[in-house]
């Protein structure tokens, strides 16, 4: 299936999506002919490399290269880079070369998934975003000028979601109408541009919690010459899980099969699998970053080939997922970060790790686990050493990318139910 055939996309001439297998709605496949020279490809389900202001948190380029399974597609965020517009216009060679990652593919989203921004500042002409210097009002014209300077391979089109409160149906309708109008205007500007366009526009599906609006947004966006779709507005705790999953399934049901579907804000292992089952292809990787920031290490098992019982329960193979346990021995004040700790991670600043000389995860091949122990990480964290976050980021990224590899392998092997049951056992 070739994208853009029959439409006037000036950019995604040859981006191609091959579905290798579809099992109960889960899509296993490959996107090829990507990048400036059309010689790159990515596999899905997959995730993108999360960056903040154009760099992988805590890591230099060289350190990053030691991580196994590093995604080829890097996520950058417009809100953190918009202020560089003039510099990038002068520089002329695009964001990849500017940040020292010339071989990566780039997807530019509007907002940083980790930072919550004030809402309610959008108008029918502008979308507001917050950079280091405060609020930026983005018109389609300004937006497209920045995209021309960034030269990302893909970018999320200007759009906005539903602001909570009031009449949600009316707000949902408005978010869909305005986002479609922004999309049409951006496509018009791209079409009219004299500069050859190298970037592919990803259309955002909005509509909040209102099913009819979500469906309308999906159907209408699908009639436009976009390269793929972003399921926007599912982040945060605004929606209950059931409605969220129903909406995601309804939306992907309306989308053409030959274009990638991206989602923002859902990254916990159980959430990822639920989305994969509903036809979502690409995710962010801000979850391992958030885990790192709270001084934790991902410790869940995704080795579905082991007997699931053993995988979770044998502490010599896999560290028990809830090693945090009831932390009566620690006498630590519960703070906000600690409240967010999930069952998929362990908090290494806890006293119980003081003399734990095992690696973070038995059998993990990352630089941190090959060279260091939980006890050392505990020491670094309690002494506020910067190295703690560097080592944790290496482990957490590698563990997370390994999870996506396991999803693809399980789909290939027809063993996704085994992986799902292993993950859900650990999510409790
Ligand atoms: Zn590790």
From TrEMBL:
It is found in: Cytoplasm; Mitochondrion outer membrane. Binds 1 zinc ion per subunit. One of its GO terms (cellular component) is mitochondrial outer membrane. Residues 327-336 have a biased composition (Acidic residues). Residues 27-423 form the tRNA-guanine(15) transglycosylase-like domain. InterPro entries: QTRTD1, Queuine_tRNA-ribosyltrfase, TGT-like_sf, tRNA_ribo_trans-like. One of its GO terms (biological process) is tRNA modification. Residues 313-337 are annotated as: Disordered. The keyword tRNA processing applies. GO terms for molecular function: metal ion binding; tRNA-guanosine(34) queuine transglycosylase activity. The keyword Zinc applies. Its main location: cytoplasm. Zn(2+) binds at residues 364, 366, 369, 395. It is a peripheral membrane protein. Belongs to the queuine tRNA-ribosyltransferase family. QTRT2 subfamily. HAMAP family: QTRT2. This is Queuine tRNA-ribosyltransferase accessory subunit 2. It comes from Geotrypetes seraphini. The gene is QTRT2.
